[in-house]
Here is the input.
Amino acid sequence: MRLEQIEKDPGEFSLTPNLKDYEAERQTFAWERVAESFEGLPSGGLNIAHEAIDRHANGERAEKRALVWLGENGEKREFTFVQMKRLSAQVANALASLGFGKGDRIFTLSTRLPELYYSAIGIFKNRSVLCPLFSQFGPEPILQRLRRGDARALLTTRTLYEKKVEPLLGELPELKHIILFDAPEHLDKRVLSLKQLMDGASDVFDIPPTDPEEMSILHFTSGTTGMPKGVVHVHKAIYNHWTSGRYVLDLHPEDIYWCTADPGWVTGTSYGIITPWLHGLTNVVDEAEFDASRWYRILQEEQVSVWYTAPTAIRRLMRIDNDPLTEYDLSRLRLIQSVGEPLNPEAVVWGVEKLHLPIHDNWWQTETGGIMIANYLSAPIRPGSMGRPLPGIEAAIVRRTDEGGVEIVTEPGKEGDLALRPGWPSMFRAYLHEPERYEKCFAGGWYLSGDLAYRDAEGYFWFVGRSDDIIKTSGHMVGPFEVESALMEHPAIAEAGVIGKPDPMIGELVKAFVSLKAGYEPSEELRRELLGFGRKKLGVAVAPKEIEFQDNLPKTRSGKIMRRLLKARELGLPEGDTSTLEN
Ligand code: ATP
Ligand code: MG
Here is the structure.
């Protein structure tokens, strides 16, 4: 089996033999050397658009496919690097002609359309700030973010405009223009047609000098733990994007790459737009939402070799009890990476059994801008672990001290806050308009991520839970992930969400909400069986004392289980911000 082979000689499967010696690479790594991978702007400085598109368009990859776009209804469009260069130049000229420039916040609200992708590059070219919104947001979350983000323009489609934005116009006096991707002509002075603007714009745009520290992207977090934060990133973040593309995604020129994330979330921009193009790759974008057979067909027909997806999608594939390899030819696929939530060990095993490839977990956040910790193709996977820090990244387990500093937890297996040494290029530079909140993330020379984890003796990091989700029961600290993963080993369980429910005797009681796989029905008998299964796997202290069946667990639109909502509903408390709740 492939996993066994990988464990024996991981390097054999890696096209990045230098990471075969992980420790040596970490020791010799220097961020300054990454600069050599970039061309730099002819006018001076560093701009994402030049490194991702223009320099390839000016060189050997000019006629190579940059974007393969698959429309929801079966349409397929392809764009070369030269075409992307010209289209994004037209967008940049159009924005400049409207008076937009450095630092202006340009929001996007769209499904995954080609216009969204070349407009993003055009926004970078114009030194404006890309602020992506998720197309399925309702009017209230849109209004909230446009306001908080000081929106100057919004790029969207006609339908989304009419349905969600038009009613808000009176409340957004600072929003100068709405630019529609699909309107043939301007509607009025404020609501314009991108096509009409582009028709009148030159397809040549010389990017002005750009300071690597200039703001490039404003991203709102997923809102899993509360009100989403506006996270500020800069052009220099591409140092991390390029590096993780090399070490984690193992990108090589011949690869065909597919990241399933929507650019409304950070993975969809850092890894759905920027990283593949920094490496000059063909980037597949599917407009449609998840559909198992469609996804397998895309992997087969587009000959995807590197696939970046998320636990929520993998769990949905697992839920269908089929053998994809008997139906689809996935022989080009050589690497699967996952991010966004803890990846249950069960999912890694499923990958080996069903796709003959293990699934590699990695960890990062909107705030880190890029992947920080990963299971590399060139090293054995530890199922259930997030992996080890990238070269150039210093990670540690720490505890806050009463004096306001931190102490490092050196003992393997001991839990604490997952912390990173500040200074990596894609680190967020601010929470927009919330300087105090930003300051609070740092202590004793470390950035504290808000996640709890431990480190094993070999330096692998293991996710325990978000600090807010930790359950204190009978003197134990229980991370929901441990309980959820154990329950998922039961054949009936598709997904589990675990919370602590206040209890006068034991502090908090572990309660699990579970959804079942096809072919299983909720029953008292099954509930009792699952309680017993939990006790056997986890021991009485940690096992859930209550189990409730729930068809669909509440999730953010980026696919994360919202445990705070399970808890609020259980306790009859206010639900808090639900702007990112999936319907
Ligand atoms: P908010 O900060 O608004 O509550 P969020 O933290 O979910 O939302 P993101 O920045 O999109 O917003 O998600 C990052 C978080 O996702 C991490 O801090 C971590 O809790 C979780 N996460 C990401 N990858 C992994 C992983 N591989 N294993 C475990 N957890 C992960
Ligand atoms: Mg967060």
Q: What stands out?
A: DSSP finds 19 helices and 28 strands in the chain. The chain has a mean pLDDT of 94.
